[in-house]
C-alpha cells in the first residue's frame, strides 16, 4: 500500500495518540522476560524485546475461552470480539498467526477464533534483540509472513512503516508520517533481510529433506524414547508454541448451579492422557501411551504432517519450546539435526 | 432437597476448614442454598449421627485408633471426599515416615504420652474407600466449589492430572528456573492455578505428584538447572509427596 | 440472539459449538449399561446425515461425547443413538427419558462412501458397540436392497446378553436380504445360546468372501488387526476395505487435535477411512 517514515522523536507521540483511540497490545516487560500485554503507558512498550513467554495467539485463542454460556439446557453464543491493535509482532509470530488463521478457518470456520482475529490490527516489527534459542532463520525459509496490516522497521533516526491493508493505513492518522525516501526503504529492506540471519541455532537441512527424514524415523521407537527420557509430559512446549492450537472442552456450572459455561482451554499432545479414550466397562485405550510416542507426535506435527496444507513446516523457529523446557529436551533443532545427520 | 454435608478432621492443622470459612463471600453463601452443613468443627458445635450425603475428611490417617471412626464415617456417608494434602496423600505429615526419632525430637520429655503413639502417616484411603480427592495444602476453595457443584449434579468431578507447569505457562508466569531458582512444578499435580510461582515462590508440590511423575528427570533438573546439591535434589519432593515418591515407606 | 457476554449487540455470529435441540421420543435399556434413544429434531427438520456420520451429543454442565448415528437417512423423521454409560457425559445422557431434550451437533465427519458401495458386494464386520454406527449402513442397504449385490453381516459380542438390537437380529437371522452370521466370545448355561462361540474371525469359516467384496470393519481397536489377517487370506485388497474408527473426539470439527492420527483428523476426515489410506499411517490401527 504505502511506505512511510516517522522520526524517532515523533514515535512515542504516535504510540500515545494511537493508545488514546484504540486498545493497544504490545510487548511489555515481566520480570526478566517479556509478554504481550495491554499498554497503559507509552514507556511500557518494549519493541526491543527478544521473545515473549506466550505467543500472540492468546489474543485470538485465549488460554481459557467460553464457547457457549448456558442457563439450564438453553445455550447462548458468546462470540464478542473486542477491537484492538496488536503492535510489535516479530515476523516469525506473524507467520504463526497466518497458520492458525488458516487452521481455524479450514473445513469448519471457527468464529470463536476468527472473530477475535478479524477485530485485530496486526503491526509487525523488526527483531532488535534475538532470543538465545531462536532458529527462525533456518526453518520455513520459503514461507513469507503475511496476513498482517503493517510493518515497522527501525532504521537510523526513526522507523519505516509499511502499511499493507486499510486497517494498517488507518493508524497513519495518529503520527507525523511522511513518505519514506528510497534510501530509507533500502535501509529497511536491508535490516529485514539481515535479521533473518541473526538466529543463533540452525537446522541443518531444508524443510522438505527434514520432512522426509523425520517421517522416515517414525518407526525408530528407541530413538524417540531416548529423546523423551527426561520428558515430564508437562506440555510446556505445546502451550508456548505459536502454532499449537489443541484444546480441551469442559462444562462448569456457576455457583447458582443452574447457569454456567462450556469452556475450551489450551491442551497439549505431550500431556499423558491427551489421546486416551474410554472404551467402556473400565477399559480405556491410550493411542499415544509412551512418552516417546507423544514426543514424536509433536515433532511430526511440526515438521511433517501439516507441511502440505501449510506450504511449509508448522514451526516458525521462535525457540519458545526450547526456553520453556526445564529438561531441555524440546528443542526441535537438536532433534531434527540428530535425525537428518543420522 | 439440600445435600447434607459434614466435615471431619484427623491428623492435620485444620487449615483446610479455615480455608473453607475464608470464602466469607457471596460464593459460599450461594453454595449454602444447595447444601446443608450438619457437622463442621471449625464453624459450628453441633454433631450428628445421621446419614450424610457427602463426608469431607481432612487430615491423615496416622493412628490405628482412628480407623474405627473413619469406618463409621464411611458407613454413614454416600460419598467420601479426602480433602487437603494430609487426607489425600498423607501430606506433610508423611515426612515422619522417614524420620526415626521424630517423637523425641518434637516432644522431648512428653514423647511417651499415649496419644502420640502413631504410625506412618497416610492418606485416609489407607483405612477406608475414598471416592474423590481434593488435593492441596491448603485445598483450593475454588476447586472445592467446583467439585461440590459437580457432585450436586451427580457428575463425577474433574480432578486435574497434569503438572503445574501447564498452569504457569497459561498464566504466562516467568519460570522459576529462568530466574535461577528451582521448582517442583514439572511433577506436581495442577489444579491450584499455580499461584506460588507467580508470587515468586517455587512450587513445593503440595498437591502431590501427577500420576506418572518423572522423578529421575526431576532430580537431574534440580541439580543441573536448579542449582541444588545432589543430596537436596534427591529428597526435595519429600515435603508434600513423601507417599507419592518411589521411596515411600510401605509399612 | 445477541452476544451473551456483554450488551454489545453485535450480530449473531455462527458458532460451530452451538448444539441443536433434539426431542427424545422413546428410550429402552438394551443391556444393563447401554441405552437406546429415538429422537427427532425439535425444530421439525428432517434428518440429513449420511450412514456412518457422527454426532456430538451433550447436556450443558456435563459436556459432549461423539456417537455414531444408529439409523439410516432412509428413516427420515427420526434418528436413533445408542449410549453406553462409561463416563461423565454418557452417564448423564443415559438418565434422560422420553420427553426430555438432548443437545446435538450433527451431522459431523465423513460416513460410508455410498457411491463406492452401490452395485457392489458388501460385507460388514461389527464387533461390540461397532454394530451401532454400522447399523446406519445396514438399514440403508436393507431399505434399498436392489442397489447392492450380495450383503453379508458378521456381528460379534462378548456374550449373549451384550448383543444389541435384539429385534433386528431376529429379522436378520431369517432375512433374505442379508447373509447374517453372529458369534459371542463366551456364554454360560443360563444364556441358552445355540449360536457360534468364539471371536469374530471364527465366522470366516462359515462365509465365502470373494476378493471383489467391499468390506466395512467397526469394532474395538484389537479387532482390526485380526480381521485384516483373515481378509488377507481371502485376497481382499486394502482398497476394498473401510474402517470406522473410534478416537477421543472432543470438538468434532477438526480443531482440538485429540483425534489426530498422522495428518488425519478422525472427526472430519473420518470416522470412516479407506484402509489403503491408513495403512501407511502409523498409529492408525
Question: Could you characterize what this model shows?
Answer:
The complex is a heterotrimer of chains A (342), B (251) and C (285). With 342 residues, chain A is of the alpha+beta class. Chain A has two domains: 194 residues, no CATH class; 134 residues, no CATH class. Chain A starts with a strand and ends with a helix. Chain B is an alpha/beta fold. Chain B is 31% helix and 12% strand. Chain B has a five-stranded parallel beta sheet. Chain B is globular, with a radius of gyration of 19 Å. The termini of chain B are far apart. Chain C is α/β, with parallel strands linked by helices and 285 residues long. Chain C contains seven helices and 15 strands. A seven-stranded mixed beta sheet of chain C has the order 10-9-8-7-11-12-15, sandwiched between helices. In chain C, strands 4-3-6-1-2-5 form a six-stranded antiparallel beta sheet. A two-stranded antiparallel ribbon of chain C has the order 13-14. Chain C is globular. Chains in contact: A-B, A-C, B-C.
What are the SSEs and their pairings?
The complex is a heterotrimer of chains A (342), B (251) and C (285).
Chain A: E1 2-7, H1 8-21, E2 24-30, E3 33-38, E4 64-71, E5 74-77, E6 84-89, H2 91-105, H3 111-118, E7 120-125, E8 150-155, E9 158-163, H4 166-169, E10 178-179, H5 182-195, H6 207-216, H7 221-227, H8 236-239, E11 247-253, E12 259-266, E13 276-280, E14 283-286, H9 291-305, H10 307-310, H11 320-324, H12 332-340
Parallel strand pairs in A: 2-6, 6-7, 7-8
Antiparallel strand pairs in A: 1-9, 1-10, 2-3, 4-5, 4-12, 8-9, 11-12, 13-14
Helix pairs in contact in A: 6-9, 7-9
Chain B: E1 3-9, H1 15-21, H2 26-31, E2 35-39, E3 52-58, H3 67-76, E4 77-83, H4 85-89, H5 102-107, E5 132-134, H6 141-152, H7 164-171, H8 195-198, H9 215-224, H10 230-235, H11 238-241
Parallel strand pairs in B: 1-2, 1-3, 3-4, 4-5
Chain C: E1 20-29, E2 34-41, E3 54-59, E4 63-68, E5 79-84, H1 88-94, E6 101-108, H2 114-117, E7 122-127, H3 131-143, E8 151-157, H4 166-174, E9 179-184, E10 196-197, E11 214-218, H5 221-233, E12 241-244, E13 260-261, E14 264-265, H6 266-269, E15 272-274, H7 275-278
Amino acid at each position: 500500500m504505502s511506505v512511510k517514515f516517522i522520526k524517532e522523536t515523533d514515535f512515542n507521540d504516535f504510540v500515545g495518540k494511537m493508545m488514546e483511540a484504540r486498545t493497544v497490545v504490545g510487548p511489555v516487560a515481566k520480570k526478566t522476560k517479556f509478554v504481550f500485554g495491554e499498554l497503559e503507558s507509552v514507556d511500557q512498550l518494549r519493541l526491543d524485546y527478544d521473545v515473549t513467554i506466550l505467543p500472540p495467539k492468546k489474543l485470538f485463542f485465549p488460554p481459557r475461552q467460553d464457547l457457549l454460556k448456558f442457563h439450564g439446557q438453553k445455550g447462548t453464543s458468546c462470540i464478542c470480539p473486542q477491537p484492538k491493535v496488536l503492535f510489535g509482532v516479530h515476523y516469525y509470530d506473524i507467520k504463526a498467526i497466518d497458520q492458525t488463521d488458516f487452521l481455524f478457518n479450514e473445513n469448519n470456520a471457527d468464529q470463536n477464533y476468527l472473530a477475535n482475529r478479524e477485530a485485530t490490527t496486526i503491526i509487525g516489527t523488526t527483531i532488535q534483540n534475538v532470543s538465545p534459542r531462536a532458529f527462525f532463520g533456518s526453518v520455513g525459509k520459503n514461507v513469507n509472513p503475511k496476513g498482517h496490516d503493517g510493518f515497522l522497521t527501525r532504521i537510523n533516526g526513526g522507523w519505516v512503516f509499511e502499511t499493507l491493508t486499510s486497517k494498517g493505513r488507518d493508524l497513519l492518522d495518529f503520527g507525523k508520517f511522511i513518505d519514506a525516501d528510497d534510501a530509507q526503504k533500502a535501509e529497511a529492506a536491508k535490516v529485514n533481510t539481515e535479521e533473518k540471519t541473526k538466529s543463533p541455532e540452525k537446522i541443518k537441512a531444508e524443510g522438505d529433506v527434514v520432512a522426509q527424514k523425520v517421517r522416515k524415523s517414525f518407526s525408530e521407537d528407541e530413538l524417540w524414547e531416548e529423546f523423551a527420557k527426561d520428558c515430564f509430559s508437562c506440555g510446556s512446549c505445546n502451550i508456548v508454541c505459536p502454532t499449537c492450537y489443541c484444546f480441551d472442552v469442559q462444562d462448569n456450572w456457576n455457583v447458582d448451579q443452574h447457569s454456567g459455561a462450556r469452556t475450551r482451554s489450551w491442551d497439549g499432545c505431550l500431556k499423558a492422557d491427551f489421546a486416551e479414550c474410554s472404551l467402556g466397562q473400565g477399559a480405556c485405550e491410550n493411542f499415544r501411551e509412551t512418552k516417546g510416542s507423544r514426543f514424536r507426535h509433536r515433532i511430526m506435527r511440526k515438521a511433517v504432517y501439516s507441511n502440505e496444507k501449510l506450504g511449509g513446516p508448522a514451526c516458525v523457529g521462535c525457540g519458545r519450546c526450547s526456553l520453556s523446557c526445564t529438561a531441555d529436551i524440546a528443542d526441535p533443532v537438536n532433534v531434527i539435526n540428530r535425525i537428518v545427520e543420522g | 432437597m439440600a445435600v447434607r454435608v459434614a466435615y471431619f478432621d484427623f491428623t492435620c492443622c485444620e487449615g483446610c476448614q479455615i480455608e473453607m470459612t475464608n470464602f466469607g463471600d457471596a460464593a459460599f453463601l450461594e453454595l449454602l442454598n444447595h447444601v446443608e452443613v450438619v457437622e463442621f468443627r471449625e464453624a459450628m458445635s453441633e454433631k450428628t449421627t445421621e446419614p450424610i450425603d457427602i463426608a469431607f475428611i481432612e487430615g491423615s490417617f496416622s493412628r490405628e485408633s482412628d480407623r474405627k471412626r473413619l469406618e463409621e464415617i464411611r458407613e454413614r456417608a454416600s460419598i467420601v471426599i479426602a480433602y487437603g494434602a494430609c487426607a489425600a496423600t498423607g501430606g506433610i505429615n508423611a515426612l515422619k515416615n522417614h524420620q526415626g526419632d521424630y517423637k523425641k525430637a518434637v516432644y522431648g520429655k512428653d514423647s511417651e504420652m499415649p496419644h502420640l503413639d502413631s504410625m506412618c502417616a497416610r492418606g485416609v484411603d489407607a483405612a477406608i474407600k475414598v471416592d474423590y480427592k481434593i488435593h492441596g495444602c491448603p485445598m483450593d476453595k475454588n476447586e472445592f466449589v467446583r467439585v461440590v457443584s459437580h457432585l450436586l449434579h451427580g457428575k463425577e468431578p474433574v480432578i486435574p492430572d497434569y503438572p503445574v507447569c501447564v498452569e504457569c505457562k497459561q498464566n504466562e508466569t516467568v519460570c522459576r528456573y529462568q530466574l535461577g531458582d528451582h521448582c517442583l512444578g514439572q511433577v506436581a499435580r495442577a489444579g491450584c492455578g499455580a499461584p506460588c510461582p507467580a508470587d515468586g515462590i517455587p512450587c513445593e508440590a503440595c498437591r502431590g505428584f501427577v500420576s506418572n511423575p518423572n522423578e529421575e528427570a526431576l532430580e537431574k533438573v534440580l541439580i543441573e538447572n536448579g542449582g541444588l546439591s545432589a543430596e537436596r535434589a534427591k529428597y526435595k519432593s519429600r515435603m508434600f509427596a513423601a507417599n507419592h515418591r518411589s521411596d515411600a515407606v510401605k509399612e | 440472539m445477541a452476544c451473551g457476554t456483554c450488551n454489545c449487540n453485535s450480530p449473531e455470529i455462527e458458532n460451530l459449538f452451538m448444539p441443536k435441540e433434539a426431542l427424545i421420543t422413546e428410550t429402552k435399556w438394551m443391556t444393563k449399561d447401554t441405552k437406546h434413544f429415538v429422537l427427532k429434531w425439535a425444530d421439525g427438520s428432517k434428518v440429513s446425515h449420511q450412514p456412518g456420520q457422527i454426532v456430538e451429543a451433550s447436556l450443558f454442565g456435563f459436556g459432549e461425547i461423539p456417537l455414531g448415528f444408529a439409523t439410516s437417512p432412509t428413516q427420515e423423521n427420526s434418528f436413533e443413538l445408542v449410549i453406553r454409560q462409561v463416563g461423565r457425559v454418557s452417564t448423564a445422557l443415559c438418565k434422560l427419558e422420553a420427553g426430555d431434550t438432548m443437545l446435538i451437533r450433527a451431522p459431523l465427519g465423513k460416513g460410508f462412501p455410498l457411491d463406492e458401495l452401490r452395485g457392489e458386494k458388501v460385507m460388514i464386520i461389527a464387533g461390540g458397540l461397532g454394530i451401532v454406527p454400522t447399523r446406519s449402513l445396514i438399514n440403508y442397504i436393507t431399505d434399498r436392497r436392489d442397489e447392492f449385490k450380495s450383503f453379508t453381516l458378521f456381528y460379534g459380542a462378548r456374550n449373549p446378553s451384550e448383543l444389541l438390537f435384539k429385534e433386528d437380529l431376529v429379522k436378520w437371522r431369517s432375512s433374505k436380504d442379508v447373509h447374517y452370521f453372529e458369534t459371542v466370545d463366551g456364554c454360560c448355561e443360563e444364556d441358552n445360546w445355540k449360536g457360534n462361540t468364539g471371536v469374530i474371525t471364527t465366522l470366516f469359516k462359515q462365509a465365502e468372501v470373494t476378493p471383489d467384496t467391499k468390506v466395512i470393519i467397526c469394532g474395538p481397536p484389537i479387532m482390526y488387526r485380526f480381521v485384516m489377517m483373515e481378509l488377507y487370506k481371502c485376497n481382499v485388497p486394502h482398497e476394498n476395505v473401510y474402517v470406522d474408527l473410534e478416537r477421543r473426539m472432543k470438538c468434532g470439527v477438526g480443531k482440538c487435535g485429540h483425534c489426530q492420527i498422522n495428518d488425519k483428523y478422525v472427526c472430519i476426515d473420518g470416522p470412516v477411512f479407506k484402509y489403503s489410506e491408513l495403512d501407511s499411517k502409523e498409529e492408525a490401527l
